[in-house]
What does this fold into?
Amino acid sequence: MQETISAIDIGTTKICALTAEVTHDSLGNMTLRILGEGQAKSRGIRRGVVMNVPEVTAAVAEAVEKCEREMGQQIVNAYVGIAGSHIGTLNSKGVSPVDRRHGVTGQDMQRALEGARAVALPQNQEVIHTIARQWTVDGQSGVQHPVGMSAYRLEVDAHIVTGSSTAINNLVQCVVAHGIDIDELVLEPLASNEAVLKPEERRMGVAVVDMGGGTTDLAVFREDGLCHTVILDMGGNHLTNDLGNVLHAPFETAEELKLRYGTVLPERVAEDEKVWANVFGEKAERSFSRRFIAEILEARATEMLEIIHKKLEDSGYLEQLPAGIVFTGGSSQLPGLSELSREVLGMPARIGIPAAHLPIHGLSRALQSPTYATSIGLLLWGLHEDARAVHRRFAAESNTGSIDWAGQTMRWLKNLLPG
Ligand SMILES: Nc1ncnc2c1ncn2[C@@H]1O[C@H](COP(=O)(O)OP(=O)(O)OP(=O)(O)O)[C@@H](O)[C@H]1O
Ligand SMILES: [Mg+2]
It folds into this structure.
């Protein structure tokens, strides 16, 4: 069993390294206690993808070293987030025969998942995750917990997440260069949903939208299972670029204007309110209407929401989301976003913040922000993996082999299985 879990979130705008200690509460549940946190400004990343390995490696070193200094020990292994438009997803089926005497075992489930994973992939693509969506036992579909069921045949509907081998290798290099082993590459929306969704939302049907600096990740959950994922090449940087282009202001100035005065609800801003900023080609600051700034942001945010609407429509899940949309990621803090979303998408919307309800102690106020949903979600993902490892070891020690291991596989899959 791992005593600590580390996470490295390599985003387009920031890199965040976190380490937590695995503890047990009085009921025996595993929880986390944050030991260290380190951040660095990102460089060498474009739209979630490593473009310059030495630059990213140096930025990762900065974040990792800060985290290590804070906790006084080294990071030896870590869960690392992955995103970018090279990510593809597809649904696939796998089958396994079942020995009727024992009923369905963990190995049968594993075999079925491996079958689902064996899909023909385009060249230079590899599988990152194979996630069970639903199980079918002897033709009976929608089975939630197949373990132990007497049957001849087990089938799985799986969601396969793939990525470009080149993009994966570049990302891996930037981490292993520091002597850090990668526990697992985790698709970012799979991590962030762990930090912000309520179990009820995941059961009823919800879309998590992680709006970062360079990417917007969309993941749909229904009946406790992941149904659909899309990584979009758009994020907060587009909003900042729009402001910069229209106002003729440098990126840094536009970013500051967005963070200080930005909103996507221009009608809430007084018509005569002015703000001042530097622009290209002029020494003195220039004044701008704050409402005009809001109109620029509203136009791009509306376009982004319309794209999300279209992606949900194309996926066939638009009408199956009673819990609506949960926005997270740094850009979800743009004032008025959930109101605008309710207007554009016509469904409930809220901002998801990793907060006190999570099994994590020592979460600083600064970390309780949508900006850290992926980083914290990576730790939670690791915690679930850790639980699986403990139970697997227990199964091996108690020599009860397949049946116990099967039970543990169920725990591992618990967030991914329907209902
Ligand atoms: N209060 C705020 N209002 C509006 N936007 C904000 C606010 N705070 C942060 N942002 C925006 O959030 C973005 C960064 O978000 P985040 O840290 O989630 O991105 P990232 O993880 O680095 O990038 P990505 O996940 O896209 O690769 C930036 O574009 C920033 O301008
Ligand atoms: Mg991010």
